[in-house]
Design goal:
The chain is an alpha+beta fold and 498 residues long. It folds into 3 domains: 182 residues, no CATH class; 85 residues, Orthogonal Bundle (Helix Hairpins); 154 residues, Histidine kinase-like ATPase, C-terminal domain (Heat Shock Protein 90), CATH 3.30.565.10. The chain contains 12 helices and 11 strands. Helix 7 runs parallel beside helix 8 and helix 10 runs parallel beside helix 11. It is rod-shaped. The chain starts with a helix and ends in a 10-residue tail after the last strand. Pfam families: HAMP, HATPase_c, HisKA. It is an enzyme of class 2 (transferase). InterPro entries: HAMP_dom, HATPase_C_sf, HATPase_dom, His_kinase_dom, HisK_dim/P_dom, HisK_dim/P_sf, Sig_transdc_His_kin-like_C, TCS_sensor_his_kinase. Keywords: Kinase, Membrane, Phosphoprotein, Transferase, Transmembrane, Transmembrane helix, Two-component regulatory system. This is histidine kinase.
């Protein structure tokens, strides 16, 4: 099942559950409201009966006739049902009927005429409500002590007090409706139920259509991300995906684009690295091959000068291969660093003293300022030695004679700054950021003719980073290049030396 289908179904199921709960809540609220309305309607209807009972009491002085003669109770119910008010004339008619038509007076009225009691409907039985027996009336009459006079009485019955001149004479009591019983009430409730259900189904239909569009809109960037990652997996690092908005999916798309750009840059660097390596290896090999072919063809004699030229190229090739090996080990993390606290000022002092005479023969003046006090760092002595040697060798190769090379140490906050500067020639601004790239050389006076492989500064950068340091290149006040290596002071590792 696709993500789109799962998302759409999730929206649909959630919407369906919400609509179902909403339908049940509305239906329950409607049922409760309808029951309250029915009870209030009955209370209003029974008020007419209460007024007639009050009038009956006023005409007869008491309610004993109602208790003794069921006929008068039935007449009160029937008249109140019709909305008639008890008058002297109506009371006289009841008395005359009782005297001269005893059979008619004692005949029970039809069930459909009983006050508050409707003929049982088929749907009433479905609602779980049994019809009242023939002799059971919907409303009961209680005396002033709440003792039943006509009909039953239970604690949950609703009651309506009847007073005459502020004197309590009786109560009307009736059971509260719990379900609609009248046919029109049941029909109204059923129609509302069907209407609510229809509205819920229509809302579900529109919700399903809306969820379809929302799911498609939500899944579109995910689909594009999947397509882009597929292209990247195939090696097409130029593939990019569109970024919509600023949410988590948009951030993922931006990260995918960043990843693709990084891989594209890495792939470009790899190809450039392979091409540069092949070129660097081919150049000395071509020279050596040409020298040997010239000797074989008799163009050049196999004397000391020719052999020295071949040896020089072999040494250059060997140095290039060693540098490539060193840099490859640094890239893959094959270097094993034996960290310890060491005095870098002493190491710089010894290295400069050893290289000064050699540089003097080349017409270069090496100056150094190691400081009087010891400067401690935590590092691998062999690799730090290699770092200093590579920096000095780089300046030695690319500084015109006569020239000056200056090395100094300085503390700055929590760092030790190792600074190497040289005199002309300088480096163009656009070349400064690329000096630490593998096999990169400035195509001017700083070129291969000086003997450099273009790997020395890249190795220095790897060593500095392995010591949690950094390296920067800038223009030197002496007219050439300035390299600054920042290394953490030893006290950052928990130990400080004086």
């Amino acid at each position: 099942m696709s993500l789109f289908v799962r998302l759409w179904l999730s929206f649909l199921i959630t919407l369906g559950a919400i609509l179902m709960l909403l339908y049940m809540a509305i239906q329950w609220s409607f049922d409760q409201g309808l029951i309250r309305y029915i009870n209030q309607r009955e209370a209003v209807a029974f008020q007419t009966l209460a007024d007639n009972i009050k009038r009956f009491h006023e005409l007869n002085g008491n309610l004993s006739l109602i208790e003794k003669e069921p006929y008068y109770w039935r007449q009160l119910l029937e008249s109140s049902k019709q909305g008639e008010t008890l008058t002297d004339e109506l009371m006289d008619n009841w008395v005359m009927t009782k005297l001269f038509e005893p059979d008619k007076a004692h005949r029970p009225p039809p069930r459909k005429r009983e006050f508050g009691n409707k003929p049982p409907q088929p749907h009433e039985r479905k609602r779980g409500r049994h019809p009242h027996p023939q002799d059971q009336l919907r409303v009961s009459l209680l005396n002033e002590n709440r003792v039943p006079v006509k009909g039953p009485f239970k604690k949950d019955f609703s009651i309506l007090p009847i007073t005459v001149d502020d004197t309590l004479i009786a109560y009307l009591a009736w059971p509260p409706s719990k379900v609609p019983e009248a046919s029109y009430d049941v029909a109204f409730a059923e129609s509302q139920k069907h209407a609510f259900l229809l509205l819920a189904l229509v809302a579900l239909l529109f919700g399903a259509i809306a969820a379809l569009f929302f799911s498609r809109a939500f899944i579109r960037p995910v689909t594009q991300i999947a397509s882009t990652t597929g292209e990247i997996a195939k090696g097409n690092y130029s593939a990019r995906t569109k970024v919509y908005g600023k949410d988590e999916v948009a951030k993922l798309a931006a990260d995918i684009n960043t990843l693709a750009a990084t891989l594209e840059s890495a792939e470009s660097a790899r190809k450039e690295w392979l091409a540069s390596t092949a070129h660097e290896l081919r150049t000395p090999l071509s020279i050596i091959k040409g020298e040997f072919e010239a000797i074989i063809d008799g163009i050049r004699p196999a004397n000391q000068k020719t052999l020295a030229s071949i040896e020089e190229e072999i040494i250059h090739l060997q140095k290039l291969i060693e540098d490539l090996y060193e840099l490859t080990n640094a890239d893959i993390g094959a270097y094993r660093y034996k960290m310890s606290d060491l005095d870098i000022s002493e190491l710089v002092e010894e290295t400069c003293q050893r290289r000064a005479l050699q540089m003097q023969k080349l017409g270069l003046n090496l100056e150094w300022e190691a400081g009087d006090a010891s400067i401690w760092i935590n590092g691998d002595e062999t690799r730090i030695q290699q770092l200093v040697e590579n920096l000095l060798s780089n300046s030695e190769k690319y500084t015109d004679s006569p020239g000056t090379i200056r090395l100094s140490l300085a503390r700055e906050h929590n760092l030790v700054n190792l600074i190497v500067e040289d005199s002309a020639p300088g480096v163009p601004d656009e070349s400064l950021p690329r000096l630490f790239e593998k096999l990169y050389r400035v195509e001017s006076s700083r070129n291969r003719e000086k003997g450099g492989s273009g790997l020395g500064l890249a190795i220095v950068q790897k060593i500095a980073e392995a010591h949690a340091g950094s390296i920067q290149a800038s223009h030197s006040p002496l007219g050439g290049l300035r390299i600054i290596v920042n290394l953490p002071n030893a006290f950052n590792t928990g130990k400080e030396h004086g």
